């Protein structure tokens, strides 16, 4: 008999039907005559209760069915008289795929710390919390593609290995096949990359944006959604060395269009989660963060505040608070400042625009004041920056001047500059950190717990 997933079984199988389920034992209890096994197969947060008449089964088999074991159960679906479930499964046959030794299986008891779970990331999927998080992560990835596809955006695959440093967004990981014990050196003792695999210095990408812009200058609206890498040594609950980023890039969008899209996109994703991940969100709301659902609903039903960096600095300067990092026009905002604006001052998401050009990347469109650029950061409660974006400088001379001013290697950007030479057009885009989005949607507090296998300084296990 074909296996039915527990999600489908609970939603559509009529009482009286014979079914086959396969999954992992979450709990087992009972007495001498009857055993109750809570079985979960990952398709839903809900378990199916399997009822076993002990005299009908081999004693040794039942002994081996302990927490964590994987089994196949054939049986009849019946109405449940127990609490918490409408139906249960009366076992007729049980097959044991794999036992889980009760003395060593690490997930015996509930209530392990998140830190411990990270050490057993290969098994943590089997808990309710991580099951919920990764089902939601999947749903969000799907919703992102759906959103853009429905709007006529094209999914563009930008390279993971690059020969250029986008904006210096962060420290990069080198990609090389050189023998590290015997690195070829050139004249002035610098590394001679001409013998390396690509014949030049290459790195893992920090952003697909520059290549994304090339696509937008022909396809109109594109987005990338892929892994990005930053070798920044920042051990925070919001930074990973390997994270996923969604980067739409749109021809003929100005900064205002860009903000409208970012707000609409974020609200769409939150609404999608509320509509499609109800049970997982309810679980997280009760176990992880009691304000989760309220916060998600609040964000979709209120407009984001929009204000300039300069106005934000005024608010922060006037705030009756001691900052760890000083506030002042020209200084970058730190997480504490961003979160003050969102959580204390406005109490809702904020889009900050028009930052000083000195603290932003070379490609951002310069404002007429000569001091600021058309940048936009979307700041979220509990997270800080979730999106960073801008209108791009489309005027060749201005872009080139900025590249020179910032002492970037002009020759590395020849292809980027050519899009401004040939048929240039106003355009805009932004980057949404996928894991920061998942943090917000799930109410989890550490970014290491919303990606299956986190990569952080001194940690690349699994
Ligand atoms: P932050 O100031 O928070 O370090 P950033 O300004 O360096 O971020 P951007 O270069 O603007 O980040 O990247 C776009 C988005 O990617 C950010 O808004 C954030 O959501 C996400 N992001 C950036 N760095 C990381 C990281 N190390 N780990 C996870 N997500 C990140
Ligand atoms: Mn940013």
Notable features of this structure?
single chain; 462 residues; 31% helix; binds adenosine-5'-triphosphate; five-stranded mixed β-barrel; eight-stranded mixed beta sheet; binds manganese (II) ion
Describe the 3D structure:
By secondary structure, the chain is α+β, with helices and mostly antiparallel strands. The chain is 31% helix and 24% strand. It has 13 helices and 16 strands. Strands 6-10-11-16-15-14-13-12 form an eight-stranded mixed sheet, with helices on both faces. Strands 1-2-3-5-4 form a five-stranded mixed beta barrel. Strands 7-9-8 form a three-stranded antiparallel sheet, with no helix packed on it. The chain is elongated, with a radius of gyration of 27 Å. The mean pLDDT is 95. The protein binds adenosine-5'-triphosphate (ATP) and manganese (II) ion (MN). Adenosine-5'-triphosphate is lined by residues 169, 230, 239-240, 243, 245, 385-388, 431, 433, 435-436.
